[in-house]
Amino acid sequence: MSLTADALSRLELDAKEVIARYPRPRSALLPLLHLVQSEEGWVSPEGIELCARWLDLTTAEVSAVATFYTMYKRRPNGDYTVGVCTNTLCAVLGGDEILARLEEHLGVHHDETTPDGKVTLEHIECNAACDYAPVVMVNWEFFDNVTPQGAVELVDRLRAGDPPAPTRGPGRLCTFKQVERVLAGFEDGLADEGVGAGPATLAGLHLARERGWAAPPPDAGGDAALGMPATGYGPGGGPSGSDAPADTAKSDPANPTPAGAPDENSSEGGKRQ
Ligand code: FES
Per residue in 234-263, pLDDT tens? Predict the structure, then answer.
């Protein structure tokens, strides 16, 4: 497929806007690959060449990135990516059965697209939505507590051009290309629409409030009850133990060691093991 002159000039304009958001042009590669997908529905060899030209990179450098991340598609993707989670909780509650049923019903397997170009099936890892397992995602929107029969009805509606609303999030599904434009950094205004966290998501929070539990303060004391050692980081405005090790920061002149972090080369520092 070759891009039309209209599509190309649209892409050129949008690419300029994306590149201008970064101090170094090459940092814009990830959103630009999404931008290409928003027009083409995949990252074609032509899309690779465009990104390389926009960023003054080689096509090999762009290909290396595009082939590393699974969200960049090297074959035309369907209008709807249907992702079925079979990690622990979803598997226990029927995720494997859902996947098998969809493979049989659609006649495609992982990373394959139905002949009508409507659905690409993906076998995916945990969506961090285990509270509503088993979960199916369509273009990264949640369909909660899905049954095998419900999954079949879902893909049938997608293929019939009658996409149902997700269980949470915005009240309508976007197509793959529309979502890719958002991932390229062009808002569609739907981010805050609909319910994000449902009752099951918030159950732990409500329980903690009822019982007066609170998260431990962000200090350097560790958590003796959990057997977590003190890190030596934190007091006096220093970074937390979750921040990058100081020696990593030192190796990067653009990101010097944060004020307050112990010097791991001195006899005072190096508390972290
Ligand atoms: S195990 Fe399926 S969403 Fe977490």
Answer: 444 455 555 555 555 555 666 665 565 555
How far is ligand 1, taken at its centre, from the CA of residue 92, in Å?
10
33 lines ligand 1 (CB under 6 A): no
Cβ–ligand 1 contact at 90 (below 6 Å): yes
Q: Dihedrals φ, ψ of 120, to 5°?
A: -110, 125
Q: Are 174 and 224 contained in the same domain?
A: no
Which pLDDT does position 218 carry in this prediction?
A: 61
Q: Are 60 and 85 within one domain?
A: no
**Can you give the CATH number for the domain in which 166 is found?**
3.40.30.10
Q: Is 89 in the pocket of ligand 1 (CB under 6 A)?
A: yes
DSSP 231: -
Of 84, 87, 99, the one to substitute when testing ligand 1's pocket (max ligand atoms within 8 A of C-beta) is 87
CB atoms within 10 A of CB 107: 11
201 pocket-lining for ligand 1 (C-beta < 6 Å)? no
Handedness of CA 216, 221, 224, 228 (dihedral sign): positive
The verdict on residue 211 lying in a domain is no
What's the token pair of residue 68? 């590393």
